[in-house]
Amino acid sequence: MEATLVNTKVILNDLASRMPHSLTEVDKALLNDIYHESLEDLDEPEAMFAYTLAKAMRKHFMTGQSQEHIYLQRFEIPQIRLFELLIQQFPLANLSQHCTNTLLIDALVSHTNPVLMDIGIGTGFQVSNIIEGLSKKADSQIKCLTVVGIEPFADALKMTEANIKRASENAPFEVRLMVKEAFIEQMSQEELKEMLPGQYDGLYVNASFALHHIQHMAQRKAVFGILKNLNVDAFVLSEPNSNHFEPSYKKRFQNCVNHYGVLFQIIDTLPITTTEKAALKLFFSREIDDVLGNTEKIRVEKHFATEQWVQLFEETGFTLQKRAALFDYLQLNGTNLKTDLTNRYATEFKGEEITSLFWAN
Q1: Structural domains of the chain, ranges and CATH numbers in brackets
Q2: Is the pTM of this model over 0.70?
């Protein structure tokens, strides 16, 4: 039983309608055929995408370790190079961060002792860029910047302090860092307040591609409510525009195909090597594994579509604003930063909004 790459998406969509628990043995055999055929032809973009989808879907009934790494070794690149590609070449990461950093820097410079709270601070890369941007501002009023970082992974936090210290060495203001190893949805309002300094004149919260990991709607509302109660000057949110919170497997599959299909198209347009393109796609295949391969109890890549984030802001008392700004650039590798939307910024590829960037208070 063979499936050609020409009709693979149609077949996978049909199989998705019976996922995750109603596949017949014939269905499973067909899915295995698609997986193995695409795995042997990964140099073709269509085969690579079919592989990522089929691999994720197979997780529901396959046991044991796969030997696919034998086929994928030629796409391995150093982790530092992968990070460089994501930040420098992949426009969704680059343009989104350029947008939010510009907005935050413009706002922070008017304060004397502001606080920047970063949810999902990671290794501190984005905050380091903001500190460097603030240091270049001739009209900055900042005397002391307090950075409050929330991050659930200890390994990342080990690098945060070093990176922010490095960025702060030439800053014309003091930088104080407070970090907490925690999931934001497990923190109380009192715990967050305790991390704030006794005196500050501005509180800005940034969350870049982090809050879609909160698994339950009640937890998301609670986090937004806590941030609203902290009387933030602004809550800045960057998130992909795709509904992977959707419990229906068939609908989630369609949303996943649309969203990551566009991401793979963007990667194919980048001025990088074929091996580097494949490595980037395999990076995002981990997210596809979670969206389509994991059970509802453990899934964490639960993205919202733009309108869902807008509704959550409204339900928790936030007002979306369109803060004006002058950006150094509005386009990168075929993707545009949209500046004409009424209540947000966004990255756009071929007329489709890929990531949404919100400023709320």
Answers
A1: 5-75+248-293 (no CATH), 89-241+303-360 (3.40.50.150)
A2: yes
